């Protein structure tokens, strides 16, 4: 028997044993979820944090107006949340995971959906769906894209703002006098 056949036979027998034992399936799925979570933490958590944690009053007003004073959470079954009271300004890409405290990384969420989201980093397909839906309710001419990682101050006195969803292009914007 060749070495490749032997390895294949061993893998098939291990897989058969795992699939025949329900608790091993659960352990395998948990291990896969932990590995994926660790990979996402490495990818999304390695950026320097924006020193400013909370949105300013003016930014909150801009986020609420841009969202039409309605929660931006969208579920595949019920559509967009109808809550209009007690809305909160939320980081789409969480501040704790390197997200910028910037209107470009903000959304209006009701208290329930903000707590449910917690510090979860949205997948690229979720951001694409959000961008597509925002075209329907954002004021005409508004930018619907989310900038995941915000302003980075370089020694040249110029901010770099990363483009959305892994795009490679960066553009330079002069630093504000905050």
TrEMBL record:
Keyword Cell division listed: no
Domain HNH nuclease: 58-115
Gene3D superfamilies: 1.10.30.50
Domain of life: Bacteria
Statement: the UniProt record of this protein carries the keyword Acyltransferase: no
Keywords recorded for this protein, A-Z: Endonuclease, Hydrolase, Nuclease
A GO MF term: zinc ion binding
Pfam family, one: HNH
Name this protein carries in UniProt: HNH endonuclease
